[in-house]
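#struct-pred

JT: dropping the chains for the assembly here, can someone run the whole complex?
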Amino acid sequence: MDSWEGRDILSIRDLSRADVEAVLKAARKMVPIAEGTKTSRSLDGKVLSALFFEPSTRTRLSFESAMLRLGGRVLGFASPEGTSIQKGESLADTVRMVETYSDVIVLRHPQEGAARLAAEFSSRPVINAGDGAGQHPTQTLQDLYTIWDTKGSIERQAIALVGDLKYGRTVHSLAYALAMFGASLVLVSPPGLEMPWEIVEQLKETGIPLQSTHRLEEVVRVADVLYVTRIQKERFPDPQEYAKVVDSYRVDPPALREAKKDLIIMHPLPRTSEIDPAVDATPHAAYFRQAFNGVPVRMALLEMVLGVSG
Amino acid sequence: MRELRVTPIKNGTVIDHIPAGMALKVLKILGIGGDVTSTVTVAMHVPSKAMAWKDIVKVEDRELSAKEVDKIALIAPKATVNVIRNYNVAEKHKVRMPDRAVGILTCANPNCITNLREPVESEFVVVGKDPQRLRCKYCDRILEDVAAAIV
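RK: done, full complex below.
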């Protein structure tokens, strides 16, 4: 395993299975601190720069919470309005400036590849908090943690990825990571929003059990995990077509009648109508816990890349 | 009897075993337009023992840079480059597909950070040689049409 101190976290592809397992184990130890029942000052005196070139409530707040819970401080911006970026400054220059102000940089950017570029211009570790339709590795780690923590393992779990698998940012890297752990995958998407062929090819190469279907009801009975994503209205030229698709992919109590008792339902949030609020009260609902898990996972990563152990 | 379609050249470069139809792309890579000062000969759809049909490009009074040869390798992985000096083949080598293509291709993803005003060269990692697959180091996308992406 590579040394963690100073390491950039840009893409889940840069992490080996052992790397991911190290993060998951470290994250579990962080839970009491993330919940506020234990305190820590492990990152006392450290400064995190949060550069959010596009808004993202959940990711930004969970990074901030993670840093603050460990005694560190946060500076940055939540949108590029009013910053020098609006004057036409390049990302490379912004990063060269910011690295002199802080110990770690967290970057969210609308262009794919932005985090890798930033890492080339920064001697401080860069954590990718989402680059366009590209990678979002901390979301992937948080999803993996949720499955691992709830189910005890990721290997051999039957995981259905449901919804917009074509444009959905999180599902591509998640599918890759789940394959690395030997999960069995079912891809469930409306026609036209299937997983891109190049990702399907890569998944096939790993040799994991892999199936695709357009019908959600076919998988509910056998799945251990339903990972539901939002289907965006703008992907459909015809609003009636959209309405039909959304209806057939809605997860509600009747749809779960034949589900396994210990099925968990995940969602990267925000949700619209994909999951009926009536599901929230059932033991299947794991999405709020999943959202919370972003904090311990990011705490673990921050400690690791800043070279602080517990 | 073998018919000689093109006469020998005194000095310059002969690029042979170009896949049929790709000769014009090779000219584009070499920046050959209306303003050349030496003779350029292009033979297209020539019978070939090794590859059934091939294209050939002869450029007089010019030897290629390593970067130009790398670019040619991306669209003509089986090409041979013959350097001619005083009517003799002075050097003959097969192009080698590089492991990385730096600064010679533009990413086809309009939303890739390398297509913005940033001070970086594009970089592609060759992830498959036959069939050829190149992945953008920055945005992770596979480049579908390599010939169209050459700078």
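JT: nice. Chain A has a mean pLDDT of 94. Chain A touches chain B at residues 11, 13, 90-92, 109-114, 116-117, 120, 131-135, 198 (CB under 8 Å).
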